[in-house]
Structure formats: structure tokens, C-alpha cells
């Protein structure tokens, strides 16, 4: 078979498809395009190319009219949405806030917490000021007896019909354990349980030392009687106010706030310190330890706290601040202004301090009453000795037996003598070992003169000399038997 010319044959041209006689259907006029700023009318596609006519011209179709341009889509902008209405809440009236008295809030100031004292007492107030405002002195005793009789920290347990003696089973079991133990020494704080608090179970006897407290005193396991009815009253008696003995001391005095305010209104005044109080023991200890003469140290008979006028105390504190500002003694581990307690002996022409006598005399020659009422004054220099080893100043000493040599009873019949224990701003002291009678002020750069004892010197005992009236204030009056 000859295929040589087969591949050279021309294929017949295929006629193109006849165009559709119908024009393209335009979109409806109500066609809505989604509202969007990015949408635009789409462009019309270009017309299709017309195919070339074949060699053998077929019958020519009639010419078609050009398609009419389709109308552009109409963009209908919908109306903006209406704002969503907000719900209007009705203003509800707030109820009036009432103070909430819970076990953790102060009844006087509901926002403050309760306050626990260092002695373990539980007053139920945020501070001593709130307690004193809300209570009278007689109500402090009721608070003490509402606490547990063993721990004296938590309130007694109440079951609705009966008030028990203890706060819970723990204190109850501990009280039973202590009552079953052998007798402790007389100074033991263990008690015989709650029997000593029931007046019907014990015979009549001494009552609590706290003024106004009718309850009987402690009964130790060996039968020894104490001085107070509860641990709380014992703490107030030994570390509380020296006047009422029913409230804690304030921060600025050995008296509570009400007693201190009352004393300031009657200044100058002296208040007797109880024998079992910590201040009494502190002053008595200093008196005995500083007695350096060979004579026997006499027994202290009474100690009085001196309450000076508020204006006089303010002047002393201002001088103390000025000395502290120059020397920065607190940063060196010392007291503010290097404050110390020193003894001073003087003349007494009345019975002030004897057997509880607290009345000042009007005699201008009674140096004791004058110093307590108006404090020390340099102008009375030489009134006792006629001269001064270290010049024109106010002399004190850390040796009680040396100050005893200057304590004199004039024109009175008394077995007791008086010494003043004073607060003195030492500041920066200049140490001297030789006499200098021309001094009228401390050496430059110093606040006082420290006369020290050296072998072969003129002094047998130390002296402290200040030259400013505001550098010293009387603090305690100590009465003792004449040696």
C-alpha cells in the first residue's frame, strides 16, 4: 500500500460554531450588591474574536446588531443601623452602713483591729485611747473577770445557760493537771483552779490590791495568798499605772492617760509608787547599787514620782532635741541626748515625803520643795556648800551615798531623809580631774563636765555638772532612813 501521499492530503477545515443569535442576558435591575467600600462594578468582558471565513464561503448570516451595553449595577446603600439602646438601671438606694462589731474589730473604731497588750490582757479595743474613751476605770475589772481564769487571754466559754470558768477544754485540762501536781514554791504562779474566785468556797480574806476590785486574791497550791485576783490585775499592778493600777501606762508617763491628764492639771504633784511596781524596784536597785560609802546602805521607805509642769517638761525636751541634733547619740547606741539618771541631795525644812505626806511647804528656804515646784536654777549656786569645785553649775552624782552627804533635815523631827533622782542631759561631757572653779559654762564643743576619780586626785566620788537650767529635771523623790 502506498502511503506516500496519504500524509500530504489536506484536512478539511472545520467550520466554527455559529454565534448565538441571542444577546447576553443583562443582570436584573434590582440586583443588590453587598454594601462594602471595596466593591466596584465589574468590567464587561471583551467580545470574542470572529473566526476567519473558510475558502469555500458558506452562506453569510445576516449581520448582527451590536449588543446594547448592559446597565451598571445600582448600589443601594442600606440605612445605618440604629444605635442599640442601653438598659437604664434604676438607681437602688444604698442601705446605710452600720458599724460591724465582730471579734476582730474595735467597738469604738469599727475599721481598726483589736489590741492585745504585752501582759496578755485582752481589752477588746484597738488602742488604749479607745478603751479609755469607751470605759470608765471601774469597767476594767469587769473585762478582766470575763476572761479565762487560766490563760487570761480568751473569753470564758458560754453554752447559753452557764458561763464556764475557762475558755475551752485545753485550759480546763491544764488547770486540772496543775491542781493535781505537788505544791510549788511560794513564788509559783500556779493556782488552785477556779475555787479561789468563788467567794462562797473560800473564807473572807484579803482582796485584790487593784483599787475598786472586790475579788479575793490568788490562792497558791500551798495555801499562800497572792496580792492580786488575776494575772491581768497583777500585770496592771506591777507594770501599769502607778495611780489607779487599773489601766496600762501611757507612752509618755508611768501613769495612764486619764491619770496623767489629771496630774498635769494639778502640777506640781508627787504620786507614790507602789512597792511591787517595776519602777519602784528599778529606783530602789539604783539607790542600793550606787551606795559606795563604807556605811551600811539604809532601807528605802517610800518612792514618789514627780510630775512637773507641762511647759517645764517641754523646755527640757527641746534642749534634749538640740543636744541630740549635735551629737547623734541615738545612732551610737545611747539614749536621746545621752540622758542619764543622777542623784542630788539638798535641804528639807518640811515633812514632805514622810508617811505619805504630799503637801509642799511655802518656805523659800526649803530647797526640796522649791526644786520640785520650779526645777533647778543655776542662780542658787553656792546655796548649800558656798563654793563649786567646777564652777557655777548644777551638781549631781551617780553615787547615792555622796548625795546623801548633802541631804539635810533642818528644823524638823524626822527619821527619814530625802534624795532626788533626776533626769540629766549629759550630751558630750568633758572629763576633768582637777579643780576649775572659774567655769560658768562647759568647755567649747561640750555640753557638760564629768569629774572623774583618779589616784591622787581631789575627788573621792564622781560628779556631773551642767550649766543650763533646761538640762536637768527632778524625776523621783526617794525617802530612806537616816544612816
TrEMBL record:
It is an enzyme of class 2 (transferase). InterPro entries: Poly(ADP-ribose)pol_cat_dom. Residues 13-29, 40-84 have a biased composition (Pro residues). Residues 1-106, 175-196 are annotated as: Disordered. Its EC number is 2.4.2.-. Residues 1-12, 86-97 have a biased composition (Basic residues). Residues 257-483 form the PARP catalytic domain. PROSITE patterns: PARP_CATALYTIC. Keywords: Glycosyltransferase, NAD, Transferase. One of its GO terms (molecular function) is NAD+ poly-ADP-ribosyltransferase activity. The keyword Nucleotide-binding does not apply. This is Poly [ADP-ribose] polymerase.
Amino acid at each position: 500500500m502506498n502511503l506516500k501521499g496519504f500524509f500530504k492530503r489536506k484536512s478539511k477545515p472545520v467550520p466554527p460554531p455559529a454565534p448565538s443569535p441571542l444577546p447576553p442576558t443583562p443582570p436584573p435591575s434590582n440586583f443588590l450588591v453587598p454594601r462594602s467600600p471595596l466593591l466596584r462594578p465589574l468590567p464587561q468582558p471583551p467580545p470574542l474574536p470572529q473566526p476567519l471565513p473558510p475558502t469555500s464561503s458558506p452562506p453569510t448570516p445576516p449581520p448582527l446588531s451590536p449588543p446594547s451595553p448592559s446597565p451598571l449595577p445600582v448600589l443601594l446603600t442600606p440605612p445605618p443601623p440604629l444605635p442599640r439602646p442601653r438598659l437604664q438601671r434604676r438607681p437602688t438606694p444604698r442601705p446605710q452602713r452600720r458599724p460591724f462589731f465582730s471579734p476582730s474589730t474595735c467597738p469604738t473604731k469599727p475599721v481598726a483591729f483589736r489590741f492585745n497588750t504585752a501582759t496578755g490582757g485582752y481589752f477588746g479595743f484597738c488602742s488604749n485611747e479607745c478603751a479609755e474613751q469607751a470605759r470608765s476605770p471601774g469597767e476594767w475589772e469587769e473585762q478582766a473577770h470575763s476572761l479565762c481564769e487560766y490563760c487570761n487571754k480568751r473569753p470564758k466559754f458560754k453554752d447559753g445557760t452557764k458561763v464556764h470558768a475557762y475558755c475551752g477544754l485545753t485550759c480546763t485540762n491544764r488547770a486540772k493537771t496543775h491542781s493535781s501536781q505537788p505544791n510549788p514554791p511560794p513564788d509559783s504562779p500556779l493556782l488552785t483552779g477556779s475555787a479561789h474566785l468563788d467567794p462562797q468556797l473560800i473564807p473572807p480574806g484579803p482582796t485584790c490590791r487593784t483599787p475598786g476590785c472586790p475579788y479575793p486574791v490568788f490562792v497558791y497550791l500551798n495555801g499562800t495568798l497572792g496580792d492580786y485576783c488575776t494575772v491581768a490585775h497583777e500585770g496592771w499592778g506591777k507594770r501599769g499605772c502607778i495611780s489607779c493600777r487599773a489601766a496600762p501606762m501611757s507612752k509618755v508617763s508611768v501613769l495612764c492617760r486619764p491619770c496623767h491628764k489629771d496630774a498635769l492639771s494639778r502640777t506640781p504633784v508627787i504620786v507614790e509608787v507602789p512597792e511591787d511596781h517595776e519602777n519602784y524596784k528599778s529606783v530602789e536597785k539604783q539607790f542600793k547599787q550606787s551606795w559606795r560609802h563604807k556605811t551600811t546602805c539604809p532601807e528605802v521607805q517610800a518612792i514618789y514620782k514627780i510630775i512637773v509642769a507641762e511647759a517645764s517638761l517641754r523646755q527640757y525636751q527641746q534642749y534634749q532635741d538640740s543636744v541630740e541634733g549635735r551629737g547623734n547619740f541615738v545612732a551610737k547606741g545611747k539614749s536621746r541626748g545621752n540622758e542619764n539618771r543622777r542623784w542630788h541631795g539638798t535641804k528639807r525644812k518640811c515633812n514632805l515625803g514622810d508617811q505619805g505626806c504630799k503637801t509642799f511647804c511655802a518656805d523659800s528656804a526649803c530647797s526640796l520643795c522649791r526644786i520640785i515646784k520650779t526645777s533647778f536654777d543655776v542662780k542658787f549656786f553656792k546655796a548649800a556648800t558656798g563654793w563649786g569645785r567646777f564652777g557655777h553649775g548644777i551638781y549631781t552624782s551617780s553615787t547615792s551615798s555622796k548625795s546623801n552627804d548633802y541631804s539635810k533635815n533642818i528644823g524638823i523631827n524626822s527619821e527619814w531623809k530625802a534624795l532626788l533622782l533626776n533626769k540629766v542631759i549629759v550630751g558630750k561631757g568633758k572629763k576633768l580631774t582637777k579643780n576649775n572653779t572659774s567655769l560658768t559654762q562647759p568647755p567649747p564643743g561640750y555640753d557638760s563636765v564629768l569629774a572623774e576619780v583618779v589616784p591622787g586626785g581631789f575627788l573621792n566620788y564622781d560628779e556631773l555638772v551642767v550649766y543650763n537650767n533646761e538640762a536637768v529635771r527632778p524625776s523621783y523623790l526617794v525617802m530612806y532612813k537616816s544612816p
